[in-house]
Design a protein that fits this description.
It is built from seven helices and no strands. By secondary structure, it is an all-alpha fold. The relative contact order is 0.12.
Length: 165
């Protein structure tokens, strides 16, 4: 091997080593990032929004149904909502967030995100995120509801067309 080739190979390996050996963030870095991103508050705000959206969809789906069917649907929804509330707690989600962020980002990434989320632009993004999520949920719901209504109509037709056996 020529000296020039060895030098080029060594330089190529040296330039790749920061990418290959990027340090994962420490638990303290991830915790700081989750803190400045307001992750706990976001989770706490998300659950009521999910529940309200679920109730709204249920009300729309059961509109015109028999009272007994509406009550049965409400009982099922309440059970589902209790499960959501008990599952989506910060105590249960924080270890998942830590693991996901630690596996996904480097220490350098984490520090850059901490710097962004503590900046005025980052704080503005965080302030506007709940409205963004609400607007997104409303838009998605407007797409999903006609599909669910069509599905319901198709199911009713299928059940109505099937001979009693």
């Amino acid at each position: 091997m020529t000296t020039g080739f060895r030098l080029a190979a060594l330089l190529a390996l040296a330039s790749l080593s920061p990418l290959a050996f990027a340090a994962p963030p420490s638990e303290a870095q991830v915790d700081r990032l989750l803190e400045v991103m307001r992750a706990e508050q976001t989770v706490e705000a998300m659950v009521p929004q999910v529940m309200a959206s679920q109730q709204q969809m249920l009300a729309q789906l059961t509109q015109g149904a028999e009272p007994a069917q509406q009550q049965a649907a409400m009982r099922a929804a309440e059970s589902s909502m209790r499960a959501v509330q008990s599952t989506l707690t910060w105590e249960k989600l924080q270890p998942l967030y830590r693991d996901i962020y630690s596996r996904t980002f480097t220490a350098e990434d984490t520090e850059a995100m901490i710097a962004f989320y503590t900046s005025p632009a980052g704080q503005s993004l965080l302030d506007k995120t709940p409205a963004l999520m609400q607007n997104t949920m409303t838009a998605v719901q407007s797409l999903v509801m006609p599909m669910l209504q069509q599905l319901e109509q198709d199911l009713r037709q299928e059940v109505g067309e099937t001979p009693a056996g």
